[in-house]
């Protein structure tokens, strides 16, 4: 039975605001076929037409196409792309991989159409170097289930060794569309045209390195084919989230917007705590304090004199200051000394909402404090290495399935979790699906970026936003600010401090237009 409320929400937000598991995409397709007078063949025809359209948009009319086809429905799309190209007088060559006897009737029919169109068929076994035209990857699509056969690996190596543009149909072969994990070999596409809905594994982790520009085509599937069972993960949009910022009444004063307190900055690590405090006050918290080593006080005052500073030499010295805070931010530059442990222990016992990052997470992972996590109101912001330590696993395992990792963190620590990295994931409870941040770029892979994020999220909590909303909005502000900085200065040499001014620009933008300013920099469109 169709849930009309969900249909309304999905139609208003558009299908491009959601991502799906492969199983749920198949459910949508099955409903489209059974209830809306569509067929697999018709969907293949629409998919192949969409691919040709996007190729022409991005590259112009190619001189030739080399299409690698497997045996599943993905291959059917590839055969029909070859046929369309041949009809346009474009030389089309198909390299087939796998046992053709295992093709279903729709794929076999698509192959016959390609044969009739005059498409060339070549053997993978023939040694060749592809130097002209465009390569189309129609090997596996969403069908990756286990280790690929040697012939598929050989084909992927040939594709990646070429010097020509590569277009993946639906999903680059070798990329797990559910988890975002990548096998030892995966197609490195310049353009991926995906269908029906974004697959969640394509939106996070390593996927952007393999998908290239990612384009969604719904294949004109009716909205009624999408129901509550289908939606899985929401793709965050900055504009609507900015609507959660508190309004500033004419009589407002600083105490209306909270007091955020940053705790950290062991000797040699003062910069991290200073960055967190700077981003906190520049995101709008009414009051910001920094509790740190005496040696860092002068630097903080020189950088941001609006931040109140307190020299702290022990946990006992910290304790009297904690009651004044609305939210506590701990971890940036904290270190792992006895001083660090004392400060973390006192902070946790204070009972305030917290944002916890960096070495605070590492101390927790080492079980150096007795903490009842279910009693805490907190946001944790690990990258994959910190997440691995918190879960007792490896960073590689975290990256192989970031969705499982972020869920496991939420379950274990009863926290709102921000799993940082490309396509940052946010989970706030045990029920709601992960939220995906679509902004940001590799230019952000520089020291201090995480400290800026921690301060932003803490500032939003201080201003009264619920933890999950603060986490979602904070991630989007942070990554979008970096996008704007890259747009202004270029992708090399981006520093954490260089995005501070863009935070204020975003906060003062029109929420209805902010997503249109430079688009989504990771190259995702529909």
Poorly predicted parts: 1-12, 517-521
Structural class by helix and strand composition: alpha/beta
Helix content: 40-55%
The strands making up the biggest β-sheet line up spatially as: 8-1-10-19-18-17-16-15-14-11-12-13
Largest sheet: 12 strands, mixed
The total count of strands amounts to 20
Coarse morphology? elongated
Count of DSSP helices? 19
Strand % is 15-25%
State the end-to-end CA separation: 28 Å
> Please, what is the average pLDDT?
92
Radius of gyration: 26 Å
Give the secondary structure arrangement, pairings included.
Elements: H1 4-13, E1 18-20, H2 22-35, H3 40-59, E2 64-69, H4 73-87, E3 91-96, H5 105-116, E4 120-123, E5 134-138, H6 150-161, E6 166-169, E7 191-195, E8 198-199, H7 207-211, E9 213-217, E10 233-235, H8 238-242, E11 259-263, H9 270-282, E12 287-292, H10 297-303, E13 308-311, H11 315-322, E14 327-330, H12 338-349, E15 354-356, H13 358-365, E16 378-380, H14 384-391, H15 395-400, H16 402-413, E17 416-419, E18 425-427, E19 435-436, H17 449-462, H18 467-489, H19 500-507, E20 524-525
Parallel strand pairs: 1-8, 2-3, 2-5, 3-4, 5-6, 6-7, 7-9, 9-20, 10-19, 11-12, 11-14, 12-13, 14-15, 15-16, 16-17
Antiparallel strand pairs: 1-10, 17-18, 18-19
Task: Characterize the structure shown.
The chain has 526 residues and is of the alpha/beta class. It contains 19 helices and 20 strands. The chain has a twelve-stranded mixed sheet, sandwiched between helices. Helix 13 (358-365) packs parallel to helix 14 (384-391). The longest helix has 23 residues, at 467-489. It is elongated, with a radius of gyration of 26 Å. Residues 1-12 and 517-521 have low confidence and may be disordered.
